[in-house]
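Query form — protein FAD/FMN-containing dehydrogenase

QUESTION: What is the three-dimensional structure of this chain?
INPUT:
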Amino acid sequence: MAATDLTELASPAGAPWTNWVGNQTSTPGYAAAPRSEEEVVALVRQAAERGIGVRVAGAGHSFTPVVQTDGLHLDLSAMRGVVATDPGRRRATALAGTRIHDFYEPLWEAGLALRNQGDIDTQHVAGAVATSTHGSGTRFTSLSGAVRRMRIVTASGEVLDVGEDRPDLLHAAQTSVGMLGVVTQLELAVTEAYRLQQQVGLWSWDDVMEQWDDLVATHRHFGMFWLPSEESGALYNLDGHGEPMADRCYVKIYDEVGPDVPDSDVEGRRVDRCYRIFPMVYDANFHELEYFVPLERGPEALQAMRRLMLARLPESVYPLEVRTVGADEAWLSPQHRQATTVISVSGAPGTDYWDYLRSVDALLADFGARPHWGKLHFLTRDRLHALYPRADDFTALRRELDPAGMFLNDHLRPLFG
Ligand SMILES: Cc1cc2nc3c(=O)[nH]c(=O)nc-3n(C[C@H](O)[C@H](O)[C@H](O)COP(=O)(O)OP(=O)(O)OC[C@H]3O[C@@H](n4cnc5c(N)ncnc54)[C@H](O)[C@@H]3O)c2cc1C
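ANSWER: The structure tokens for FAD/FMN-containing dehydrogenase are given below.
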């Protein structure tokens, strides 16, 4: 197809697109970076007329082939910024390409903050929402569960304004992996600004397991990395301060503190604004799989994972990250109507880690695990339908909004086509 066949807003793509960690590439036919919703509408209409597929890239922090297209690749980086805050209703509205860290200052100035956060803050908000990006703590849903309104440019070029008055549509759109259309704007439920005390320490496996229920129930955030070997911590930049790390747990506990507790930067016990506590620093040196088992089955699944990983060293050298997430209503959310224990492991880039990851998949499948849409998984259509009670409804809605499947790609079509 000649370059002039598509609007002047798009250009024939140059260099192939690559995700952050470098395990996914794509050579789109066209690429565009719209600056407004009107431009998105024009691009989607032209792509639809010509039967070209469309996928949006966020910050490229997914490990799965969720962005790839040989059609039109959209980059919404220019559609960025918090456009409204409402302290009374505790809401914040942002353009789709707003990075998570772009929320910090505008919300804090309005006396607000994101309810919870994951390990990094460089994702586009629409990209993070598309895959149910989460932090830790059963009192909090993923970011998808916090979405209260979205504007989506659908395959017909219409703008769908989805809010709480249409709960089914909202719950379908909250976790859509980009399959319902191009999200241009989102309103999130947020919370009052809060400060956190962070406690970090190396614990024995048995101590964590014995106190599991208490750790999960008592703290705002409890998460840990179990380190199968002495080398494991350094792979995720976890500092053991010279202590032995093999077969120990790097435990992170965050609790809210009042204004009487001053900020502090004492090693292992920091106090600061929430958004300065949450983010970690990762190198692009791992390919991650993350599965979600029902919350109460967490300890049993973790014991089984530890046995498997010790038996599979050295390929299982990356830390086992463990978190919890509260239930939500999003149809494709791993937390759909079910709080979860989150279990993640990684393989080393450049090695054949697939057999190891398949053994993790097989083990966690027995616990009814649902995968993270942005992290490596082995989901089939049969498993999808067994695990997600609203998968049929999502597929029916997707077909209604996008009969030609222009927002599907080779990864998503076998699951949702
Ligand atoms: C180092 C690292 C740490 C991470 N930590 C966490 C964590 O703590 N918790 C967690 O849950 N996940 C985590 N992730 C995974 C990450 O949050 C998700 O994969 C997230 O989706 C990435 O957001 P992104 O902006 O990079 O989107 P991308 O990966 O670029 O895209 C993700 C999906 O969103 C779609 N999309 C993006 N923008 C739009 C739009 N405007 N309209 C429609 N669809 C759109 C894309 O098409 C794609 O399907 C981590 C990933 C990395 C690499």
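ADDITIONAL NOTE: The first strand starts at residue 11 and ends at 12.
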